[in-house]
Specification:
The protein is an all-alpha fold. It contains five helices and no strands. The chain is globular. The chain starts with 5 loop residues before the first helix and ends in a 9-residue tail after the last helix.
């Protein structure tokens, strides 16, 4: 994962915290399609098949920590409880 750009690492951490591509794009000020292109490059670089696999690999290899997830999740928009 050391080959990922700063932006790609931001995207991956936000995916790990549960953000959608649209939410990530809105938060980072980029288009949703740009987020999806970053994700495709992340998958290619780390050998992941999908979002879940990319997050699992990043956590397994220590590139995303629980502290990272907690910090991002604290700012994650929550849906109102029904």
């Amino acid at each position: 994962m050391s080959g990922l750009t700063v932006r790609q690492r931001q995207v991956l951490r936000m995916v790990a915290a549960g953000y959608t591509s649209a939410q990530i794009g809105s938060r980072l000020g980029i288009h949703r399609n740009t987020v999806d292109r970053h994700l495709g490059e992340i998958y290619r670089q780390i050998g992941a098949r999908d979002r879940g696999n990319a997050v699992a690999l990043a956590i397994y290899h220590g590139h995303i920590t629980l502290a990272d997830l907690a910090a991002i999740a604290d700012n994650h928009p929550r849906e109102a409880a029904a």
